[in-house]
Write a structure and sequence with these properties.
Layout lengths: L8 E4 L11 H11 L3 E4 L6 H18 L3 E4 L2 H7 L3 E4 L6 H8 L4 E6 L2 H9 L4 E4 L17 H15 L4 E4 L7 H7 L10 E4 L1 H4 L4 H18 L1 H8 L5 H17 L6 E5 L5 H11 L2 E3 L7 H5 L4 E5 L8 H13 L4 E4 L7 H13 L4 E5 H8 L5 E3 L2 E3 L6 H12 L2 E5 L3 E4 L4 E4 L12 H13 L7 H20 L7 H14 L2 H7 L2 E3 L1
Parallel strand pairs: 1-2, 1-8, 2-3, 3-4, 4-5, 5-6, 6-7, 7-8, 9-10, 9-11, 11-12, 12-13, 13-16
Antiparallel strand pairs: 14-15, 16-17, 17-18, 18-19
Helix pairs in contact: 1-2, 1-9, 2-3, 5-6, 7-9, 9-10, 11-19, 11-21, 12-18, 12-20, 16-17, 18-19, 19-20
This protein binds ligand 3NM and magnesium ion.
The site of magnesium ion has 4 residues, from loops.
Length: 517
């Protein structure tokens, strides 16, 4: 019988990362105590005798815990110690030959980079696939065109699922900061996730391999059971406008009711709107913090309820701080709202937005039509500076829904009518006032409002959380525009903040104009 195996947290070893005061077997022992479910011994330079001795020393540990041990590449070593199986790459012995030698009762896994390689490995009887290379890694020499990113891994995975029953992990630069993102993002269109992640340095090079494995294991569980992507397939089918409005009002009530316990909303935002966003956040019931330094993100992260990343005045000096904030947010599963302000205007902005979406992922994209077009690679809408120009998308609902499905996140698109989508349900929001377009930062304040509200329901009902933020700002604008002392944009701005402060869930529920799009 082939042994059972569990790919949830797959450790690939690297002796080069073992510190002088430990053995590889000790690290593997600690890692299994932390939650590693399967181990692959990978030695690229060891002599055969030493390789076999090392394999025996690991086998003592893995047998003790009932965790399978696989040998990288070397069928002879696997036979010598009667290991549970092997893992082979595209340049190693062929799978068919390996199977002939090892027989039906050994596990054989294979590294694949492309859909064609995945299909071939499955046809040859691979027991699981290692799909890579996900992210850039220092552990293995790879060419940049081997990098798949989560989007490329998803393509390979989707194809494999079409071929037949398959089990797989992804590998390459996966760690505790990006594991949830990778597993959420690589789910197939039908919601089928990879079984887990494979890591080398995230555990092998960690100061405390047991602790590192524990965090990774809990991140994988989060992606399997608690993240929005894990519930999306069943929870959000075909919602009515009335039900999502009720849910949004409930979110507003919750945030406004917290006496004293205001959600801390960390802003990495632009210099033009910083003050307005801070005041909007306060007025809506949040507690804003603008902490741009990379050095302070780890200290802050535990207390942050939501993170806004707004690239409106992006400089290269801000990038390390934003990266650090996103890593920390990801570690704590804190919702991230991305406002890709004016991303179409330069390669600098565009490549940073692509980096964010590839390496960290976000929970909400809040964008105008020009930015949505840029993200979709569509030329249907163009931009002048940071503003969209022209008539907009011929089918805005299709645009936001496509973007939402691509990035597995909520998309909020602002404009004359606003749209919000979770990829399954898409709503048009007809609140708001033309005066919003006369002041700077109206859109950025939507990002702030979405972050302030979504944090209560980010992993349960992010669509309602995002809708709450969107309508709160728009209804406040309607009230402000008609208030007695408003004569133009300059007097509208403070009145706008006043009206955000006065909002209630009852007002919102009676005034929101939301319809299915
Ligand atoms: N195989 P880290 S990438 C051993 O794509 C290995 O097949 C890969 O190391 C593949 O987790 C890789 O430290 C290295 O980035 C992964
Ligand atoms: Mg190999």
């Amino acid at each position: 019988m082939k042994p059972d195996f569990n790919l949830t947290l797959y450790l690939v070893t690297d002796s080069g990362m073992v510190p002088a005061d430990k053995t590889l077997a000790q690290i593997v022992d600690e890692a299994i105590q932390g939650g590693v479910t399967i181990v692959q011994l990978r030695e690229k330079t060891a002599d055969t005798g030493a390789f076999i001795a090392l394999a025996r020393s690991l086998q003592k540990v893995t047998k003790n815990y009932g965790v399978p041990l696989l040998i990288n590449d070397r069928i002879d070593v696997a036979l010598a110690i009667d290991a549970d199986g092997v893992h082979i790459g595209q340049d190693d012995m062929s799978l068919v030959e390996a199977r002939r030698i090892l027989g039906p009762n050994k596990i054989i896994g294979m590294s694949v980079q492309t859909a064609a390689e995945a299909e071939a490995a499955m046809c040859d009887g691979a027991d699981y696939l290692g799909i890579g290379v996900c992210f850039d890694t220092e552990t293995k020499q790879i060419s940049t065109d081997a990098l798949r990113g989560p989007a490329g891994v998803r393509q390979v995975w989707e194809h494999a699922l079409e071929v037949g029953p398959v089990r797989a992990v992804t590998i390459g630069g996966v760690n505790e900061y990006n594991a949830v993102h990778v597993l959420d993002y690589t789910r197939s269109a039908k919601g089928v996730p990879l079984e887990g992640v494979a890591v080398v340095s995230a555990i092998m090079a960690a100061e405390d391999p047991c602790a590192a494995a524990k965090v990774l294991r809990s991140q994988v569980s989060f992606a399997m059971e608690r993240s929005w992507a894990s519930k999306q397939a069943t929870a959000y089918v075909d919602r009515s406008a009335a039900s999502v409005c009720q849910a949004a009002a409930g979110v507003v009530a919750r945030v406004r009711a917290t006496d004293g316990a205001r959600p801390l909303v960390q802003h990495m935002t632009n210099a033009v709107v910083m003050n307005d966003c801070a005041n909007a956040c306060l007025a809506l019931g949040g507690s804003p913090i603008m902490a741009p330094a990379a050095e302070e993100q780890a200290d802050l992260a535990r207390n942050v309820s939501a993170l806004v990343v707004n690239i409106g005045t992006l400089t290269s000096a801000q990038i390390p701080g934003i990266r650090a904030a996103m890593r920390c947010a990801r570690l704590y599963n804190t919702p991230i709202v991305l406002d890709p302000v004016g991303m179409g205007i330069s390669t600098f902005r565009k490549s940073f937005v692509y980096e964010i979406l590839r390496d960290y992922g976000v929970h909400v994209i809040k964008a105008n039509a020009g930015e949505v077009a840029s993200l979709l690679g569509s030329d249907e809408v163009s931009m002048q500076g940071v503003d969209s120009i022209g008539a907009g998308f011929s089918d805005p609902a299709a645009a936001v829904s496509a973007l939402s499905r691509r990035h597995r996140c909520i998309v909020v698109m602002t404009g004359r009518a606003d749209y919000v989508s979770d990829g399954t349900s898409t709503f048009a929001v007809r609140n708001g006032h033309p005066m919003q377009a006369c002041i700077s930062g109206s859109g950025c304040m939507v990002g702030t409002a979405v972050a302030t509200f979504i944090q209560t329901v980010a992993h349960e009902d992010p669509l309602a959380g995002a809708l709450a933020g969107l309508v709160a700002v728009n209804v406040a604008a309607e009230h402000a525009a008609v208030s007695a002392d408003v004569r133009g944009p300059g007097t509208f701005r403070p009145a706008f903040i006043d009206e955000m402060h006065r909002l209630s869930d009852d007002i919102l529920l009676s005034e929101m104009r939301v319809e299915r799009a």
